[in-house]
Amino acid sequence: MKVIEIHNVNKIYNESEVKVHAVNGVTLDFEEGEFAAIVGPSGSGKTTLLNLIGGLDNPTSGDVMIGGSLMSSLKGSDLTDFRMHNIGFVFQAYNLIPVLTARENTEFVMRLQGKTAKECSNRVEELLKAVGLEERMEARPSKLSGGQQQRVAVARALASKPKFVLADEPTANLDSKSTETLLDIMEKLNKEENITFIFSTHDARVVKKARRVITIEDGKVISDEYKNIED
Amino acid sequence: MITSISWKNVWRNKSRSLIVIIAVTLGTIAGVFVAGLMNGWVNQRIKAAIYTEVGHIKVQNPDFLVNEEAAYSISNFLEVTKYLDNSTHVKAWSARSKIMGMASTARGNAGLTLKGIHPEKDKLVSDIYANLLPNTGSYFESKSKQPPVFISHKTAEQLKIKNFRIRDVTVDSLKTLDVPENVILKLDTLINTRFITQKKFEVAIKEVWNSTEIKSYGPALLSTAAYFHPRAKITFSFTKINGELGYQTYQVCGVYKTSNTMFDQNSAFVKHSDLAPAAMLADNQIHEISILLNSEENIAGFKTTLQTKFPEASVMDWKELAPDAGMMADFMTMYYYIIMGIIFFALAFGIINTMLMAILERIKEIGMLMAIGMNRIKVFIMIMLETVFLTLTGSLIGMILGGLLIKITGETGLNFSSVAEGFEAFGWSSVVYPTIETSFFLGVILMVIVIAILSSIVPARKALKMKPIDALKME
Ligand SMILES: Nc1ncnc2c1ncn2[C@@H]1O[C@H](COP(=O)(O)OP(=O)(O)O)[C@@H](O)[C@H]1O
Ligand SMILES: [Mg+2]
Asked: What confidence tens digit (pLDDT) does each residue in B465-474 have?
């Protein structure tokens, strides 16, 4: 089943004198349960592409369909609510609310959806255990390491069982050990929950873990490879 | 959950929030206390207007309102009083004859209205008897050669019945009031000299005492040296009902003082049974009936009933009879809210500024929240609640402290005569007992919430104007 369909999408920035063709005629599909990396050098258009998929930005032309809905038909709060229900996000930084504990941050999107703390608690504890933070559930972000904070962000992105998770350079601020841990956790959850993961990176060690590697340069997809991983 | 985030956000920058909270607390204390002070003052005025001066309702001859001539008495007095006696709404009533005239002593004159009362009945309607100054006599109780009159402190001054003399007892009482020996000694040359006005006495004191001594011991000296010429005789001249000029001599049996100088200046009380024959009034020729009801709630209804029953009489309630007090009663609550409104309007700028800083410094976080699915309404609610909590915390503390202050000063009273300086202040203390209704606090809470919501609009707009991707962009 196709979760995401991108058809001939372009994003052109006109703001300055120079036109920037940040995403240039990209056509891609993502199936349920994929674990895909978008790879490319800095400035190649990874963030722009993820923002278009995540409904945080509108394409200059072309269509982005998520679960059969055309993203450009949604506006304002409808679009925000669509994101809340369908997409999990992990950013490079500023992922967590500093005044809330790891548990409260993890349940945040579920609570936005209207669930009570009680209804969330099983799911949240299960996820925080899965990301190895069962001991730190009541800690605030400032008491957690960068890697631990990103793991909470992953837990939060998955908590509401979205259609897919977008992670824009989730390991950019992490050391190699934390990077490996985070990737292992993401991979495990991807398998256990069968939730599509799309993450961008320019780190070769991260690329290694992906089952599908989409390489972009100057806004164009220059290769799209599936690795055969036989365990 | 948004509520708890907002509350926690208030405490993110503790010192900045505390500054706002303290400012709001102080502003609320000031506003609540000033409202309590005004309210106490207004309530005292209303109480005096009703229970000393006019009663709840007054019945008069409408012609008497236009022209206070003795001939315009209430036309069906007996029927009215019979109706009042049988009504369950009426607590008490008092009938008064009123004759305008001139009071004279050997040293002074004063124009005033003699009010002929039945003292025992009038006591139930007006508490004027309770305003008797100490050591000036009694309320129509002692015997006298001439008919007794109960005059005001103001009238006593105009008629120069209030005198000042430093006597041995004055010196003794000054000693008990801890006035230093050498200061008392300076008064030696003045001992036993009589001063017939306060002004003359003050001039003499200024010769022997310096200004700091006057400031510290002046009030004590004035009150111990003052005395009312006992049993002073006053002659009243007035127009009798037949148009002839009449004279009658009274003896002062007591001096009173209320908080209303106008009333004091105009009113002297005598027995109706003394006044009526002298003015050639019949026993039933009465100019006003002052009525107290059992409950203030019945005033409007009873007034209408009485007016319908006796259409030829003028029936007025206390708001019409004492329009100053009536106006205040109607508008005072609004004034208190205006005071609070002005204070909170000023505070709103500080609140808006603080909230703007708080929002701008976490704009990335708000962008992230919008990206992961917090919609504009929820973001607005979060910022609005944060503003409400910030403001409400301070105002709740302020209301508790301001309420306590009102409670304490409401019991002890606040003496404003000590605030003024010099001899001008030597009058009688004006003591205010602050008080406030609970409903006022509820009104203030509502007002704080509204103002906080309005203050949150500017910072919330700032947050909502930005797009999540712009906020999230990494520099
Ligand atoms: N808001 C913008 N306005 C103008 N140019 C932009 C904007 N955002 C990104 N770009 C440009 O688009 C190109 C792709 O950027 P980006 O998607 O951030 O790349 P990556 O995430 O791969 O580093 C870059 O050349 C960048 O300068
Ligand atoms: Mg990027």
From this structure: 888 888 877 5
Please give the number of the atom of ligand 1 that sits closest to the Cα of A42.
23
ipTM value, please give it: 0.95
Is the pLDDT at B173 greater than 90? The verdict is no
Task: Supply the residue whose CA is at minimum distance from atom 8 of ligand 1.
Answer: A48
Residue B472: list chain A partners with CB under 8 A: 56, 91, 94
Residue of B nearest to A82 (CA): B373
What are B403-442's pLDDT values in tens digits? 999 999 999 988 776 554 333 333 334 678 999 999 999 9
User: With an 8 Å Cβ cutoff, are A76 and B474 in contact?
Assistant: no
Q: Kindly compute the dihedral angle of the four CA atoms of residues B147, B153, B155, B158, in this order, to the nearest 10 degrees.
A: 130
**8 Å CB contact of A83 and B372:** yes
Task: Give the closest residue (by CA) to ligand 1 atom 11.
Answer: A22
Number of the ligand closest to the Cα of A43: 1
CB-closest option in B9, B367, B374 to A99: B9
Which residues pair with residue A90 across a beta bridge? A167
> What integer pLDDT is reported at residue B1 of this predicted model?
86
Residue B257 banded pLDDT, cuts 50, 70, 90: confident
pLDDT of residue B421: 38
Cβ-based contacts of B8 with chain A (< 8 Å): 99-100
Three-class SS string for chain B?
CHHHHHHHHHCCCHHHHHHHHHHHHHHHHHHHHHHHHHHHHHHHHHHHHHHHHHCCEEEECHHHHHCCCCCCCCCCHHHHHHHHHHCCCEEEEEEEEEEEEEEECCCCEEEEEEEEECHHHHCCCCHHHHHECCCCCCCCCCCCCCCEEEEEHHHHHHCCCEEEEECHHHHHHHHHCCCCHHHHHCCHHHECCEECCHHHHHHHHHHHCCHHHHHHHHHHHHHHHEEECCCCEEEEEEECCCCCEEEEEEEEEEEECCCCHHHHHHEEEEEHHHHHHHHCCCCCCCCEEEEEECCHHHHHHHHHHHHHHCCCCEEEEHHHHCHHHHHHHHHHHHHHHHHHHHHHHHHHHHHHHHHHHHHHCCHHHHHHHHHHCCCHHHHHHHHHHHHHHHHHHHHHHHHHHHHHHHHHHHHHCEEHHHCCCCHHHHCCCCEECCCCCHHHHHHHHHHHHHHHHHHHHHHHHHHHHCCHHHHHCCC
| Among protein residues, the one whose CA lies closest to atom 5 of ligand 1 | A13
Show pLDDT as tens, one digit a residue, over chain A (231 residues): 899 999 999 999 987 788 899 999 999 999 999 999 999 999 999 999 999 999 999 999 999 999 989 999 998 899 999 999 999 999 998 889 999 999 999 999 999 999 999 999 999 999 999 999 999 999 999 999 999 999 999 999 999 999 999 999 999 999 999 999 999 999 999 999 999 999 999 888 899 999 999 999 999 999 999 987 544
With a 6 Å cutoff on the Cβ, whether A45 touches ligand 1 is: yes
Cα distance between residue B351 and residue B356, in whole Å:
8
**For chain A, counts of helices (H) and of strands (E):** 7, 10
Best of A14, A19, A24, A48 to mutate for ligand 1, by most ligand atoms within 8 A of CB? A48
Length of chain B, please? 475
In angstroms, what separates the C-alpha of B12 from chain A's closest C-alpha? Answer: 7
Q: What residues flank ion ligand 2 with Cβ within 5 A?
A: A 47
A54 touches chain B (CB under 8 A): yes
For domain A2-226, give the fold. Answer: Rossmann fold (3.40.50)
Using a 6 Å cutoff on CB, does residue A79 contact ligand 1? Answer: no
Task: Please give the Cα distance from B125 to B61 (Å, whole number).
Answer: 20
pTM: 0.81
